[in-house]
Amino acid sequence: MEVFVFSLFNGVLYGMLLFLLASGLTLIFSMMGVLNFAHASFFMLGAYFAYQVSHHMGFWPALIIAPILVGVVGALVERYALRPVHRFGHVAELLFTFGLAFVIEEIVQMVWGKVPVSYDVPPSLNVTAFAWQGLDYSAYRIFMLLISVAIFVALFFGLTRTRIGLIIRAALTHPHMVASLGHDVPKVFMWTFGVGCALAGVAGVISGNVLGTEPGMAIQLGPIVFVVIVVGGLGSLGGALIASLLIGILNNLAISYDFSFYPIFAALGIERDVDGVLADLVNLTTAGIAPLVPYLLLVLMLIFRPRGLLGTRDV
Amino acid sequence: MTMANPTKPTMANLTKPGVAAGIVAILIVLPQLTDSGFAITVMSQIGVATIFALAFNMLLGQGGMLSFGHAVYFGLAGYVTAHVMNGMASEDLPYIPVTLIPIVGGFAGLFFGILIGFVSTRRAGTAFAMISLGFAELVTALTLIIVFFFNGEEGVQTDRWIREEMFDITYGPDIQVYYLIAVWCVIAAIAMYALTRTPFGRISNAVRDNPERVQFIGYNTHRVRWLAFSLSSFFAGIAGALHAVNVEHVGFETVGLGQSGVILIMVYIGGTGNFAGPILGAILVTLLNSYLSDLTPAWYLYLGLIFVLMVMFAPGGLAGLIMMHDPIRRARPRLLLTMLPAYAIASAVSLVALAGAIGLIEMIYFLSTTTTRDSAMILYGIALDAADFRPWLICIALTAVGVFGCVRAYPRMAEVYNSALHEARRQVAS
Q1: Are B76 and B240 in contact (CB under 8 A)?
Q2: Which of A115, A232, B92, B218 has the most CB atoms within 10 Å of its CB?
Q3: Do residues B5 and B315 make contact, with C-beta atoms less than 8 angstroms apart?
Q4: CB B142 to CB A230 under 8 A?
Q5: Which of A80, A98, A108, A285 to mutate to test the interface with B (most CBs of B within 10 A)?
Q6: Cα B167 to the center of its chain, rounded Å
Q7: Statement: residue A277 has pLDDT above 70
C-alpha cells in the first residue's frame, strides 16, 4: 500500500513537471503552428542558469531570475531568428528549432562542460518532510509539487479569467480578427513563446537538482514531452495535463512494482529455459519496459485515436 | 510543405555522358592516389553517407516528409546484415556473396519501412515529424530490451571476410570494401534518380506541394507517402548494410537520434531541392567531420550553427545557392564576372567575422574544458594566453567589424545578383 501511495505521489510529481513543459509547448504549437523542438533545451537552460545564479546568490533568487532569463532568451529567439524563418513554412520552422536544440546543447557543453554540474537541492529544503511506514519523503519534492500546481492554477486562471488570456485564446483561433481589433499579434506570439520557454525554465530550475543537470537532459526529456502533447491532443491544455499525469504515474508504477511478465508466459506453457527472442520476452519486467511506455502509448494513440485524448482535430 | 525554391530535380550535368564517365573515373582512380588507410576509410564513409543522404532526400526533398528517425531503417538493416553475415559464417544460413549482401539490407529496410511507414505516413508535415521521432525513441529503447537481436549496448560484431568470392575478392583489405561501396553507390544513385523521373516520382512531388489537389485527381495521398517512405527505407537499408560491412560492427547508436540528426543536417546543408544536393552535403559534412573533429572540440557547434544559418538564410542549401546562378550562366556567362567584386567583398567580411567568432568559441572551449591551471593555448598557430584580455579584445573586434561588414555587404551582393538576373532574363526575352 505504502509503495503504491509513494509511487503515485512521485508519478503525480513527474507528471506535473512534464506538464510544465507540455503546457508551453502546446500553447506555442496551437498559436503559431510551430512545434518547438528546442523546448526541452530551454528546460535545460533553466537548470544551468539556476546552477549559475544559485552559485552566486543562492537558490531563492535563482528560482525567480533563471526562468526570467530563459524567457528573455526565448522571446529574443522568436523575434530575431524564428520570425524570419516563418515565411519558409512550418517545416522550415521545425528545422530551425531542431538546429537550435543542437546548438544549445553544444553551447551548454562549451560553457559548463560535458560532465554534470553540482547543482544541489537547497539545504533548507533538503530535509525529510514526513516518514510513513518507514519510507522518507523529502520536503523538496513537496515543494516541487506545490510550485508546479501553483503554476498550473495561475496558468489556468490567467488564460480563462484575464484580458490577456482572452486575447491569447482569441489569437489561437482567429489571429487576423485579433489583429484587426488593433492588437499586435506578432508581439503576442513573441510573449507567448517567451512565457512558454520560461515555464520550461521553471521546470528546469526546480528539477535540475533532483534529476541531474547535464548536457543530455534535454534530449532525454524532449521526446517524452512531444508524446505528451500528441497523446493529450494538440493544442489542448486539459489533454496535456491528463497525458502528463498518465505518463508520469504509469512510469513510476512500472518502476516501483517491477512485475515480471513471466507468469503470463508460464500460463501459455513457455518455460524460462527458452532461447532466442522468447528468452528476452520471458525475462521482461515492467521496470524494463518503462522507457517504452510513452512511445507505445503514442503509437497506440495514433492508430486508434489520432486526435489524442481531448484534441479536436487529428494530429 | 513549402520549401523556398521547389526547383525541379535537375541533374542535367550529372547525366551528360562525359560528366558521368568523369565521375566514375574519379571514383576508380581516387583511392589509387593515396596510400593513407584513413583517407580510404573516409571515402568509404562518404559513399555510405551518399546513399543514405539520397534516400533521406526521397522523403524530405521529393516527398516533403521531415523525418527525425530515418536512421531506424539504416540501423535495423545494419543489424539484420550483421546477423545474416554471422549466420553465413557459421553455415546456419545459405551462402550469399558479400558483394550482394546490400540487397539483404535493402529488403530489411523495406520490411521495416512498410511496417512502420503504414502508421507514420498517415499524416504529413509536423505530425509526421513527431511520429518519426517517437518511433526512433521506441526502437532506441528496444535496443536495450531485446538482447537477442540488438545485443544491448555492446552491439553486434561481424566479420566480412567469409570466403573468397569471384576475382579473388575477400573484402579483407579496406580498398576492396571501398570499391564495393562505390559500385553500390553508383547503382543506388542511378536507381533513385530514375525514380524521380517516373510518374510515381512526380506524384510524390505533387503530394509534397499540394496534397489536397492530388486527392482531387484521384490519388490516395497516404498510399503515395507510404510508397515513398518504403522505397526510401529500402535505399537507407542498402546504406545500412554497407555500413555494417564497412565497420564490421553495428551498435545501438546507428538507430538513434544522433545518426538521424546528422543525416538530416547533411541533406539540408547540401540542398533538398536538387538531386545532387544531398551528394554534396554527404561529401562535405563527412569530410569536415573526419578532419575537423580532430582539430577542434567545437566541431558539432560549428555544424549546428552552419545548419541554423542555412535554415534562416539559404533554405535551398549549397546546391540551391549554386543553382541560383544557373539562369545567368545560361543567358550570359560574362555577367557572372561582373558580380565577382561584390561576392569577393562579402566573402572577405564573412571571413573576418568567422575568424573572430571561431577565435572566441575556441578560447571559451579551451578555458572551460582545460583541467590544468595553465591557460596557454595555440590559436591559428599563434601561442597565446587565454587568460589575457588582449586576444579576447582582438577576437571581439574582428567579430564586430566582420558582422558590421556583413550587414552592409550582403544586401549589396543581393542587389548585384538581382540586377544580373534581371539583365539575363531581359536578354532571354529579347
Answers
A1: yes
A2: A232
A3: yes
A4: no
A5: A98
A6: 33
A7: no
Other Cβ atoms within 10 Å of B171 Cβ, number:
22
**pLDDT, averaged in runs of 10, over chain B (430 residues):** 41 66 79 80 91 93 89 92 86 80 92 90 82 88 80 78 70 81 90 90 89 89 92 94 89 86 92 88 90 83 91 88 84 82 89 90 80 67 75 89 90 88 83
Q: Are B43 and B31 spatial neighbours (Cβ–Cβ below 8 Å)? A: yes
Instruction: List A138's β-bridge partners, or say none.
Output: A128
Report whether A293 contacts A250 (CB < 8 A): yes
Residues present in chain B in total: 430
Please tell me the predicted confidence (pLDDT) of residue B11: 47
Cell numbers for A228, please give them. Answer: 505528451
What's the grid cell of residue B310? 542555412
Within the 100-159 window of chain B, which residues sit less than 8 Å (CB to CB) from chain A? 119-120, 122-123, 125-127, 129-131, 133-138, 141-142, 144-149
pLDDT tens for residues A233-275? 887 888 899 999 999 998 888 877 767 777 777 777 666 666 6
Dig out the grid coordinates for B241 from the structure: 548494410
Chain B residues closer than 8 Å to A48 by CB = none
CA–CA min distance B191, chain A (Å): 27
User: Helices (DSSP H) in A174-214: which residue ranges?
Assistant: 175-180, 185-211
Mean pLDDT of chain B: 84
Please report the ipTM that was assigned to this predicted complex. 0.87
Q: Are strands B382-385 and B376-379 parallel, antiparallel or unpaired?
A: antiparallel
Residue of B138, B148, B305 with shortest CB distance to A299: B138
Give the pLDDT score at A77. 93
Chain A nearest C-alpha distance from B307 (Å): 6
What's the pLDDT tens digit per position in A94-109? 999 999 999 999 999 8
- The answer to whether A106 contacts B304, with C-beta atoms less than 8 Å apart, is yes
Residue B164, classified by CB atoms within 10 Å of its CB into exposed (0-12), middle (13-18) or buried (19+), is: exposed
| Whole-number Å distance between alpha carbons of B131 and B402 | 42
A300 touches chain B (CB under 8 A): no
Sequence ranges of the domains in chain A: 2-304
A111 touches chain B (CB under 8 A): yes
Task: Report chain B's C-alpha Rg in angstroms.
Answer: 24
Q: A184 to chain B, minimum CA–CA distance in Å?
A: 24
- Alpha-carbon distance B72 to B78, whole Å? 10
Total residue count of chain A as it appears in this document = 315
pTM of the model: 0.88
DSSP, collapsed to helix, strand or coil, labels residue A298 as helix
Task: Scan for cell 530550475, then name that residue.
Answer: A205
Please answer whether residues A65 and A53 qualify as being in contact, where contact means their C-beta atoms are separated by less than 8 angstroms. Answer: yes
Alpha-carbon gap, residue A69 to A51, rounded angstroms: 13
How far apart, in whole angstroms, are the C-alpha atoms of residue B113 and residue B83? 19
CA distance A82 to chain B (A): 8
Q: Which fold has domain A2-304?
A: ABC transporter involved in vitamin B12 uptake, BtuC (1.10.3470)
Cell triple for residue B396?
571581439
At B380-394, the pLDDT tens digits run 777 777 777 888 888
Q: Tell me: the pLDDT tens digits for A188-231?
A: 889 889 999 999 999 999 988 888 888 888 888 888 998 898 88
Suggest the residue from B132, B133, B364 to mutate for an interface test with chain A (most A CBs closer than 10 A).
B133
Q: What are phi and psi of A117, to 5 degrees?
A: -95, 160
Cβ pair B119:A84 closer than 8 A: no
- In this structure, what are the phi and psi dihedrals at residue A79, rounded to the nearest 5 degrees? -70, -45
Which of A91, A111, A299 is facing B119, going by the closest CB pair?
Answer: A299
Contacts of B212 (CB under 8 A, 6+ apart): none
pLDDT of B352 reads 92
